[in-house]
Amino acid sequence: MKLSGKVAAITGAARGIGRACAERFLSDGVKVVISDVDNDALDKTVAELGRPKELCAVHCHVARRADVDRVVATAVREFGRLDIMVNNAGVARNQDILEITEKDFDDVLAVNLKGAFFGVQAAAKQMIAQGAGGGVIINMSSVNALLAIPTLATYAISKGGMKQLTSVAAVALAPHNIRVVAVGPGTILTDMVSSAIFSSDDARRSVMSRTPIGRGGEPSEVASVVAFLASDDASYITGQTIYPDGGRLILNYTVPVKDK
Ligand SMILES: NC(=O)c1ccc[n+]([C@@H]2O[C@H](COP(=O)([O-])OP(=O)(O)OC[C@H]3O[C@@H](n4cnc5c(N)ncnc54)[C@H](O)[C@@H]3O)[C@@H](O)[C@H]2O)c1
Asked: Fewest CB within 10 angstroms: 41, 145, 214, 234, which?
């Protein structure tokens, strides 16, 4: 219970990795504000997680600064402070690079990069206002911050930018005792990935041939890295991205894949 008594806010937490982070924080004694653009999914998650004294939810489209500010304000109103901010909301569009419109580019960058920037700013302002105690800001990146998949240009560009957002904010906010870090998962078995990637055997084989651990990751295996980075066990880590990726980034060749 190293995080017991802390207050966290998470964007894009109605499902997937964000929801897993909320569950992990709750089991570690953290009070949590979850937020999402999808109100129905958010209501369902609140009902399923229960814990009304430690959990509350607020609508948020992360590309809107006022919405992100409201997430932080909700943490302060409901739980008195903010110690941990997880900028998790993200979208991906599979497209040929030549087909990407200006709107496609703006939409993905607005959620994945501008949204995270708003989260960094809003959280940091609150943490500074609270005094010297500082805090931790965690950006949900991806192996695509470093890797180049030709049909994921807007996504990769946004996560590449997030790497520098994390580094620059870490340096700027270190004097305020705020650590800024990122988590860059490989292929994690969220709803999106299970239906879009693991539904086709070719696609599954393509990903698994590049995954030495030989399976997709569970959302809880990302949440445990988030919990570590949020804790004082990670007190000397700032500005870096940690990659829970089943060995994907270090692999320089493909590996044989077992048939299902
Ligand atoms: N699943 C993976 O394999 C994987 C790998 C690397 C990185 N990631 C990153 O992890 C994060 C979460 O991904 P996931 O797999 O859980 O996805 P998901 O699609 O399962 O969940 C994402 C959540 O974000 C919400 N969301 C979308 N746009 C939003 C917006 N504008 N404002 C607020 N909420 C919004 C969605 O409604 C959804 O609930 C993303 O940043 C993604 O890029 C995922």
From this structure: 214
